[in-house]
Amino acid sequence: MVDALFLKRKATEIRKDLLKMIYEAGTGHTGSSLSNTDILTALYYGVMRIDPENPDWEDRDRYVQSKGHAVESYWAVLADKGFFPKDELSTFSQFGSRLIGHPNNKVPGVEMNTGALGHGLSISVGMALAGKKDNKSYKVYTLMGDGEQAEGSVWEAAMAASQYKLDNLVGIIDHNRLQITGSTADVMSNEPLDEKWRSFGWEVVEVDGNDVVELVNTFKKAPYVSGKPTMVLANTVKGKGISLAENEAGWHHRVPKKEEYEQAMDELTKQLEVLQ
Questions:
Q1: Which terminal residue of the chain, N or C, has fewer Cβ atoms less than 10 Å from its own Cβ?
Q2: Model pLDDT, residue 1
């Protein structure tokens, strides 16, 4: 049974944590992390089999954040789940910190370093193939950005996943239609994404990527077709949850000013009050 209220509160709390990290560090991908917060919340609090006390558990589900620049939500979730102390979030992007600006597998819970776009799905194909060969029941989840779909290596991995019938692999596209220099339609049009992925042999499911309950229910049903990898096309809003950042490409990599930070935190606090 999905606890909708818990999941919605958790997503809002994670947004507050990541915004505080970015503001205090003076750097970070604000819009991108706000965009994928509901996806991460659904996976880590409602779907994946993981054990923070035993992060290398052989039968754990695997998560690879190919969209590595949007790491702030990832760090906030891992800390909240207990993979490392939550007070370590205050060291984000500071000299000597392991919580750097992209996923770092020196941190418990992180499967693979990522950041150069286009690599995560290839890595995940290897993990899923290993699971098949070892007769393991774990699933592999991979989050990509929609701008990332311009990388050729994504489509090489897509072909391989279909060829090897990796129905234990779930790809996710954070489909907010914006990237650092503008809209994906203007920078490098990739539509129709659903038809492209189907043509590569994937089962495609389209969802509201900012509806954490819909996301949980969608992920739990995978695989939708035996012998086919699943692609979840998650339609999201860049900067979701903060009115001044929503649907604004300029917030891809921007730190809020003091008054913007206070406004954003006030909005998120009010959202939590509604969810009491």
A1: N
A2: 67
